[in-house]
C-alpha cells in the first residue's frame, strides 16, 4: 500500500498560487496590452514552474518495496533493506550504501514547529488550591511527555526506521538504489525560462 507524505503548508500555498495565476492570466488576456502583457505572462509562467518544483512536486512516498524521495529535481528510490540509518533534524536524512545520504525534501520540521510540539508535552503548573484546568490522568500525562518535542518529521522518520528494521529481520536482499532526474520539473522550468527570455528579447 502506497503512502504519500507532503508539506501540507507548501502544498496548500502551491494550489493557492495556481488559483492566483489563473485569475491573473484571465485578466491579462482580457486586457491585453501587447508586450507588457506577454512579459507578465512569461514571469507568471516561470514562477509557476518554480512553485510546482518546490511546493507541489516534493513528496516522501512509502511503497511495499522501498522509500521514494521525490525532491524538486531528483527522484531517489531506496529499498527498505538498503537503509542503514535515519536521523531527523530540520530534514529527514536517510543513510544507505557507502555513506550515501538521501535528504528528504518533505516533511521538514521548523524550529517553530518543534517548539510548539515541545509545549504540547508540558504539563500545566498547578496554581493554588483551585485549579482552572483539569488534571490529566497518569496515562495521558505519560503519553504527552513521550510525544513532547516530536514533530511530523520525527514520526515519519520513525516509520522509515521501523520498515527498514523489519526488512532486515526478514533478511531481504538489498536491491540497488536508483536515482533519476525529475525531467518534468527540469523541462517545465527550462521551457518557461526560455519563453521568458524569448518574450523579453523578441516580443
TrEMBL record:
Entry keywords, A to Z: Membrane, Transmembrane, Transmembrane helix
Pfam families for this protein: bPH_6
Segments forming domain Low molecular weight protein antigen 6 PH: 57-91
InterPro entries tied to this protein: CFP-6_PH
Transmembrane segments: 12-32, 38-56, 185-202
Residues spanning the signal sequence: none
Name used for this protein in its record: Low molecular weight protein antigen 6 PH domain-containing protein
Lineage: Bacteria, Bacillati, Actinomycetota, Actinomycetes, Streptosporangiales
